Amino acid sequence: MTVLEGERLENAATGLVLLRFAPTALAAGSFSLPEAAAAERVKVVAVGLAAG
């Protein structure tokens, strides 16, 4: 049962990530996973440092 619950959380997380990147990809007309991941990593680090 734990595996199924974890799988649902992974599916939800994947959907949220796609929802976050989709508008940018549509507006730009292209999508690069490495560039998107790098930009997201910078945001996460900045928020983490700001939060302390």
How would you describe what is shown here?
The chain has 52 residues and is mostly helical. It has one domain (2-51). It contains 2 helices and no strands. The protein has helices at 2-28, 33-51. The radius of gyration is 14 Å and the shape is flat. It starts with a helix and ends with a helix. The mean pLDDT is 80.
Write the layout of secondary structure elements.
Elements: H1 2-28, H2 33-51
Features of the shown structure:
single chain; 52 residues; mainly alpha; 88% helix; 0% strand
Summarize this structure briefly.
The protein is mainly alpha-helical and 52 residues long.
| Weakly predicted, low-confidence segments | none
**Separation of the first and last Cα atoms:** 36 Å
- This entry's quaternary arrangement is single chain
- Given helix and strand content, the structural type is mainly alpha
Strand content: under 5%
Number of distinct helices = 2
Radius of gyration: 14 Å
- Pattern of helices and strands: HH
Number of self-contained structural domains: 1
Q: Can you tell me the overall shape? A: flat
Helix content, binned percent: over 70%
Q: Characterize the biggest β-sheet.
A: none
